[in-house]
Amino acid sequence: MQRFTRTALQRLLLLSTIAILWASYPLSAQSITAARINEVMIDNVDNYIDSYGKRSPWIEIYNSSAGTIDLAGCFLTDDPQDLKKYMIPKGDILTIIKPRQSVVFFADEMPLRGTFHLNFTLTPETPHYLALVSSDGSSIIDEVEIPAAIPADHSYARIDDGVRTVAPAKAWHITQHTTPGSNNVVKDKNEKINRLQEADPNGFVMTVTAMLVVFLGLLILFLAYKLIGIVAMRLENRKQALYKAPHSESTTTASTTDDPLVAVAISLALTTELELGGGEAPGQLTIRPRTQTYEPWSDKSQMMRPTVECKRLKA
Question: pTM above 0.70?
Answer without folding.
Answer: no
